[in-house]
Amino acid sequence: xxxxxxxxxxxxxxxxxxxxxxxxxxxxxxxxxxxxxxxxxxxxxxxxxxxxxxxxxxxxxxxxxxxxxxxxxxxxxxxxxxxxxxxxxxxxxxxxxxxxxxxxxxxxxxxxxxxxxxxxxxxxxxxxxxxxxxxxxxxxxxxxxxxxxxxxxxxxxxxxxxxxxxxxxxxxxxxxxxxxxxxxxxxxxxxxxxxxxxxxxxxxxxxxxxxxxxxxxxxxxxxxxxxxxxxxxxxxxxxxxxxxxxxxxxxxxxxxxxxxxxxxxxxxxxxxxxxxxxxxxxxxxxxxxxxxxxxxxxxxxxxxxxxxxxxxxxxxxxxxxxxxxxxxxxxxxxxxxxxxxxxxxxxxxxxxxxxxxxxxxxxxxxxxxxxxxxxxxxxxxxxxxxxxxxxxxxxxxxxxxxxxxxxxxxxxxxxxxxxxxxxxxxxxxxxxxxxxxxxxxx
Length: 442
Prior knowledge:
Oligomer: single chain
Mean pLDDT: 87
Low-confidence stretches: 1-12, 369-377, 398-403
């Protein structure tokens, strides 16, 4: 499973390829792709891919830890604290501790400086614990320095006006990780600034093999019950059929994560810094209906007096459980917005069909992905992340699977029932039924 394969078009090393992209770009004073070409490649990607040479000139590409210390100074950030020991259970955010500290204190801790300087980290051993300031909105971090938001420029990828206001910052120590999950909305662009991060990605078709769950509940994430770097194959035998795509992201590289790709991310080096942005998609309208259904069902189950819950079913990213009435309002608003979007989309299609043939041909030509714009892009600077060779344990195929007895399966719990009710495929069908049912009322 740990084997990595990289499709490097004429190269065998991604760092060598990145140097080549920088050299060619410097020589011609241009980036490997125009914004239009980059946008076409991103929205046309069916696999994760690493993009080289597109963000080297961004000031944000130099936001290393010392630079961030200077920029944010005494500003407090919340760090998630986890354990570096490897277990078969994922380290969900509900199982972690949290401390509020400055980036300077974090830097002193990972550097091994005095306990006094490292503040709240002083009682933590870097050999035992990791820390992660994840999902920090740049617009809030730099609310007093809006000029800093211009140091991120997703316009180079074909998204004009998109900058730090639409981005988040991630700062972690060695071992810091995000449990395997899928994002409900959009696709993801990730710039690696400092250190390396290892990404384990799985296609949407592998959802059944990753044992999806909505507990802990977070409005925009579906988690996997599998610790993909140390799976319990007896409890999760279907995981052996999953197809991991593994890549280590280096500074200066940008990773494209297509819609609904599962991913587990772990910091490889002592310090890692990343900046990312989620790109909105038309499919998000339907996803919001699905998320409103999930919220309504989870809160209805978990808010019932006496329901099995240890109080940790709500992810720390969610402030509180919303009432059933509020959740139904969200659901109705999401269905209404989806219906309006589909009506507007239909009107646009009807208008396009009435155009003169020549005008229609020109528009289709302009919208065609990969359309030539006067120069050939450096295709070796867009690297697909291919599947690993195997996800099976040595000799696993030779093992006979022993069926579970009734005593091993036990009684069905409410969480197990929720997992079935809120399986992504089931929620998608329910959302479609709701939209079809209410479509004629609006």
